Known about the structure:
By secondary structure, the chain is mostly helical. It has one domain (11-255). It has nine helices and no strands. It is globular, with a radius of gyration of 21 Å. The chain is 81% helix and 0% strand. The termini are far apart. It has helices at residues 4-51, 58-80, 92-117, 123-146, 151-183, 188-211, 214-224, 227-239, 251-255.
Amino acid sequence: xxxxxxxxxxxxxxxxxxLEQLEVTSGLVKGVSxxxxxxxxxxxxxxVFLASRGCRFAEQRVERVDASLGVExxxxxxxxxxxxxxxxxxxxxxxxxxxxxxxxxLDALPELRQSIAAQKxxxxxxxxxxxxxxxxxxxVVFEAADTAADPVISRALVALFNFMxxxxxxxxxxxxxxxxxxxxxxxxxxxxxxxNLIEAQERCFQIFTEFAEPTLRAIWRNAEIAPxxxxxxxxxxxxxxxxxxxxxxxxxxxxx
Length: 256
């Protein structure tokens, strides 16, 4: 018969194992978040580069690629630190499946970048490729959040995921807007896409404010009333104005 002490020791082991998994998960989420941020920037400059037929953001695109590569290497290292052999990691089935998809997309990035550099791909096609990879990375964050046992940490990760999702939708809006402003016009389909992205952002940020701690909510509210926000709204109205109307040639720089 097992003693009370034996169960106390087992409980302590479980606690230690949970803390160790939390440490790994936190590092993974941090690294993935940074990679998402880098890829969003690379997607944006690539869009302007392609939409302008290589006339704009050529140097910035190379810089963004280099920055993404550095963070990607760190994330790959984080993936390698995960315990894939024991089969005891909570939520491992879904998490590892998401990571496998992400690694497949990362392996395809060099070819995508070559196509962008040679202008053998459209801005829309490049955006879809980057967006698919970023969606996979966000899914990794979601699954990591699902493995958290502590309710406080779980709420924080839910807030983080929805903030990142909202930020990604803002990044997609930025990419669509950058391409439209670079070309000098927005078609009706582009305008509908922008409107859908804006509405989806608002839903994500609403969930973020529901789960985030008060300090973060206050920071977010201050960001919403920052001077730059009014300029974004003004340019949104321009983009969603009369379809196919000619726009100022330097508008893409201001938008970006």
